[in-house]
Amino acid sequence: MSQEDGKKAKGTKTAKVIYWIATGLTVFFMGSGGVMMALGMQGNVQGILELGYPAYLCTILGPAKILGCIALLFGNRFPTLKEWAYAGLSFDLLGASASYALHGNLPAPHIVYPLVIWMLVLLSHRQWRRNA
With contact defined as beta carbons under 8 Å apart, do 43 and 36 qualify? Predict the structure, then answer.
């Protein structure tokens, strides 16, 4: 194996590690939020209500987040499904950030937190496409 092949193999390994770290964090944050929404945890329902949305939105978003996380972890056999999962999680996070921003009287971390998780989603997607 040449020195160039060794560098390429090391770069591929690093890309996979970055992918799994970003994907793992994304699945942890989005999956745990999805479970709490699906179970109707009081804090989640209250947050939805404070933004002016109906409580039943939790029963829609919760399972959708869980299914999206499953698609990220096991969707390599179905790349289109995985792309849709990335898109759905992105829409959810951007919508959350916009809802907090447009609400007006919530602290800045409420706006920034979904955007930070969205950056993890984007990094995971980039690394997945790079390794594909």
Answer: yes
